[in-house]
Amino acid sequence: MRTHTFSHTLQSCVTAIGLLAVTSSSRASAQNQSGAERGQLCTLGASGVGQPGSVICKDVMTGATTQTVAVGATVAAPGGIAGNLARLGKRVLVTNQSQGAVLFEIVGGQLMSPMMLQTGGEGSLSGALSDRGAYVLTGAHLLFFPRGEVTAASSQSLLVADGSAAQVTLAGGHAYVSEKSGSLEAFSLGKDGNIRGGATPVAGVPAGVIVGITGVGDLVVAPIAHLASNPNQSTVPVVRGLGVVQIVPTKEVAACWAANDGGEACVTNPGSMTVSCGQVGTNAFTSYTSAAATLSGDTVFDIDMLDTLVGILGKSNGAPVLLSYSRAKVGGDFLSPVGTFQLGGVATATGAMLLPAIQ
């Protein structure tokens, strides 16, 4: 069922909707035609918010479960946070944890050697990784953990800290944080990775609801899901430093979550049940296709990209699904379906993360 009312689309982005992943089905014909790379699509599932969670990964081609790794209790349902599964190189950071965050090493495609990052009793919501260490977002603070350390070396308070913190991403010497109440703020980072300054609002961002953001080089793609001036309308600002350098209009509704890889960024639009994708240059989007893929189902959530793969967490006919797509590295923004996997056995899930295939 597709509905374009404000109440539906805001619920798609910001409220608690349960889902996740254990059983699967796949579309073999689409898989055979896609030519997609092998890999794993993962999400964080639990029997309910506040209950112990597990990172559950599935083969993007067959839907078979490849690994299930237990972590701590969750603090947030899908819809209100983004980027709670973060990957960089051989490391994965898991947030949406009631006690700290968990840092893993990727060995042969498997999550190994968990390290618990201590957040001083605050639940973690989102995370980001750099060569220098890990950044963890809580409801009130942004914390930096140097590589190999389990206690934060620096932290700063959020600009609003009203409980609406959604995601942290990195770009151009800054950490950026979205708060759903309408704030996009930047924190200056030192060469050692430490947070050097307090939160500074990014100028020129249209007022409205903001959830997922993604750093692309020195730029940040920061979709506004619901403009304050028209809640049924979205727009996609691009930020450099402390100001907006481009605003991409879109006809899609509820532009909520974003990811990028290889110079392309994609945005999920649960109000329209579409994915938008575009090529990102040094200073701005150089292309933007509003409906790079049209999705079936009730709603969609987080998105991730890795090489030629795109992975999405969604829900269809009241049941959770994982969606895998392939993309061309050059020559266009459109996505091709690879597999649709029915999800069950777990009541709630957050995040989408692609990993290399198990070796």
The gist of it:
The chain is mainly beta and 359 residues long. The protein has helices at residues 6-14, 28-34; strands at residues 40-46, 52-59, 65-73, 85-88, 91-94, 101-107, 110-117, 124-129, 133-138, 141-146, 154-157, 165-171, 174-179, 183-188, 200-201, 208-209, 214-216, 219-221, 226-227, 235-240, 243-249, 257-261, 264-269, 274-279, 289-294, 299-306, 309-316, 319-327, 335-342, 348-355.
- Shape label: globular
Strands side by side in the biggest sheet: 3-2-1-30
The number of strands is 30
- Secondary-structure-based class equals mainly beta
pLDDT below 50 for ≥5 consecutive residues: which ranges? 1-11, 14-35
Q: Helical content, roughly?
A: under 10%
Rounded to the nearest angstrom, the radius of gyration is 18 Å
SS strand fraction: over 45%
Sheet with most strands: 4 strands, antiparallel
Average pLDDT figure: 89
Number of helical segments with 4 or more residues: 2
Oligomer state of the chains in this structure: single chain
Key terms for this structure?
single chain, 359 residues, mainly beta, globular, 4-stranded antiparallel β-sheet, 30 strands
